[in-house]
Structure formats: C-alpha cells, structure tokens
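Entry for the shared binder. Reason: the reviewer on the internal report wants the predicted structure included alongside the sequence.
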Amino acid sequence: MNATPEFPYRKIVVTGGAGFLGRFVIEKLKAYPQVEVFVPRSREYNLIEGSEVKRLLSEAKPDMVIHLAAVVGGIGHNQQNPGRFFYDNLVMGAQLIEQSRLHGVRKFVATGTVCSYPKFTPVPFKEDDLWNGYPEETNAPYGLAKKMMLVQAQAYRQQYGFNAILLLPANLYGPGDNFDLETSHVIPALIRKCVEARRTGSPFVEVWGSGNVTREFLYVEDCAEGIVRAAAVYDASDPVNLGNGREVTIKELVKIIALLTGFQGEIRWQPSKPEGQQRRQLDTTRACEKFGFRALTPLEDGLRRTIDWFEHAYQTEIAV
C-alpha cells in the first residue's frame, strides 16, 4: 500500500503488536501520519482477564482494534498444550470483541489461522469450505478457538451492526520469527537446524515426518500488507484467506533451505513423528477481488531474507 496521509481510522490498538507479525503491521501503519497506534504489552495487560481488556479499551479509546495476539506454536507444542491453546485464544478473542463493541470501537480486525480448515479440505482451500468438517487433530483446539472469532464477528454484525472482519493467513515466516526448536514452526526450525549443522560440522539433520505433506508459506511483510489493506477498506462478514497461492512439499522446502544455508549433509526423515494435515494451499481470489491484495515475495526470496536475518542475529552462537 502506498504511503498516504489518509487512513479511515485514527486511534488503533494492535494486540500482539510487539510480536513477529505485529512489528510489520505497525511499520505499515506508520506510513499514515495521522494514525496513532497503541500496543498493549502482556506485562501491562493480561488480555485473558476481562477486567484487563476493559481497562485497555477505556485507557486507549481506539477507533479500531487489530487483534494479532495469540498463544501459538508448532505441531509438538500444540500437542503438549491443547487445553491452554484452546482456552487462552478463545477467551482473548471473545472478550476483545465483546468489549470492543461495548466501548464503541468502530471496527475489529481479527486474524484467524489456516489450522481452522477441515482436515480433508479440497485444495485450494476456499473460504466457503471452512465448516465442511473437523480440523486436523494435532492443532484442532487452536484452530477451533480462533474460528470462534468468525462466529462471534458474524453474530455481532447481525445483531449489533458491529463491524468485525476475520482474515485467514497461510503459515507465516520471515525475519524475526521464533527460532526456538521447542515451539517454532517448520521454516524457522529447519533454518536453525541447517545453520547449526553447518556451523558444527554435523553430517545430518533430523526432520519430522515423511516430507510428503505440503504447505503454503506467506512472507510476514506480505501478510502485514494484506491486513492493513483489509483494515482500511474491507467491511464484510465473509472470512478472507491471505496467501501466495504456492503449494510446496516439505521435501522441496528442505532442499531449498539446505541450499540457501550451505548445509550439504544428510536429511534424516522421522516418519514416526506427526506431520499434520496432508495438504495446504489457500485460494486467494477473494482477497484480490475485495481489497486488491496479492503476495509479492517469492518463497526463495523470502527464505533468503529470513536466513540472512538469522545468520546476522546469531553471528557467534545460536542461543535463542
């Protein structure tokens, strides 16, 4: 989106604004001189507590809330924390939407997850397929909790005329991602494993699963662009996918990352480990039609930027 002095909302609260995606959304919003952005930090506002949500909105008095905060992690972390992931995400979303309505917020922008889609959704995933089955089991509690924001947004639009929208990003990656192997997603985990193996001279890296499942990856800055475009102009009840339309197998992804990191050793697959949904790719037609969003960053370019960031961030020792 081109820098312009006009944005239809002036005071904006961005939950999760200090996080991976949030930092890029904040940068996009800074292009608009009249916009004031407030980022509630978790140490100051516990958004799982209703009283804290009320205090946040009373103090900030926003015209718009962009809700990016989430309790999230990779497959293993999802399996270890299904109750926490369900409750924390459900309660955060429900209370923020309800209190935003009560505090006169003009628009609420919710970010959901591709994990909300049914396990056997035909590829490419269309938004109309969202309710045609149960999500893949390893991350269903998280996916369902986030999907409840769509139910709430549509119900509140119908009963109260409250302007709330839901966006469904593909798997994100990019500079500043979480590279902790215990909690990270697949791209940062693979980057870290390959870089560490190259630096230590390890002859192999281990990768969960068979490598045959597919995913779609959206560069974080592209996602931020889509969110800000939608925040400005999209005011309908239908959920909208944000993706780049490219489906890639994990085997292909590993080859690209190994090449870009300079790792030349063996890839040891761990087929006994869970690998989640078999295929994922989003239909991105609606985002293009409704607010002119197209992802511009090719996967190889985004991976190169992410690897460069990681290499520079941990020049002497990887200690995330």
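Summary line for the report: DSSP finds ten helices and twelve strands in the chain.
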